[in-house]
Write a structure and sequence with these properties.
Layout (H helix, E strand, L loop, with lengths): L2 H12 L11 H7 L6 E5 L5 H8 L3 E6 L2 H13 L6 E5 L11 E7 L9 H10 L1 E12 L18 H8 L6 E7 L2 E5 L5 E13 L1
Parallel strand pairs: 1-2, 1-4, 2-3, 4-5
Antiparallel strand pairs: 5-8, 6-8, 7-8
Protein name: Methyltransferase domain-containing protein
Keywords: Methyltransferase, Transferase
GO molecular function: methyltransferase activity
């Protein structure tokens, strides 16, 4: 566990009463809502919006985060929803350790960091954790939001095709179901509204 990484995310979550909306990520709902529930791995579970939603649909969820503060909030949200029996919380610094086992759905929602982060290695580990017949869903920011810091506008975001290439999947063992650049309307931290661009990769292990 890298303590500087853990401290960064703990300070972020403890800096305000609620950091995220509490709602599940819409692309996860779109994808998982059409699937029969099974086992799911929620990488970077944050405050538990996705974990709660998955459990309510009947998924058995392993929810992972590096931040103790995030895990505490996520556990509270799961308990309030009456879903604690369906969720296993694990603390991992994904740059160093990864949950064991295989899952019907591995969800990596906006697993992006301002800190040094071995993205390629983590995404490949996520693919290895997919059970036969299961799916990996990777959703990332595709552009800086309209209300983003001007300094961030020089950031380059990998395309879905580049992310697929990073996964280095055996084409005989995987089927690509979606490579999308969906857009959605969202509200910024100070009430601003704007269009967000996402990058989405959905692959299924044969």
């Amino acid at each position: 566990m890298d303590e500087a990484t853990a401290r960064h995310w703990d300070e972020l979550y403890r800096g305000r009463e609620r950091y995220w909306s509490g709602r599940p990520n819409p692309h996860l709902v779109d994808v998982a809502g059409a699937l029969p529930p099974g086992t799911a791995l929620d990488l970077g579970c944050g405050e538990g919006g996705d974990t709660v939603w998955l459990a309510r649909q009947g998924w058995r969820v392993t929810a992972v985060d590096v931040s103790t503060a995030a895990l505490e909030r996520s556990a509270a949200a799961v308990a309030a929803a009456g879903m604690a029996a369906l969720v296993d919380f694990q603390r991992h610094d994904l740059a160093r350790t990864f949950p064991t086992g295989v899952f019907d759905l591995v969800s990596a929602q906006f697993l992006q960091s301002p800190l040094e982060f071995p993205r390629a290695e983590v995404l490949r580990a996520a693919a290895r954790a997919v059970a036969p017949g299961g799916r990996l869903l990777v959703v990332e920011h595709g552009a800086v939001p309209p209300w983003g810091n001007a300094a961030h506008h020089h950031t380059r975001f990998p395309t879905p095709q580049e992310t697929l290439a990073v996964l280095d999947l055996d084409p005989d063992g995987w089927h690509v179901e979606r490579l999308d650049v969906p857009q959605r309307q969202a509200t910024g931290p100070d009430g601003q509204t704007g269009t967000l661009v996402d990058h989405l990769v959905l692959v299924r292990r044969r």
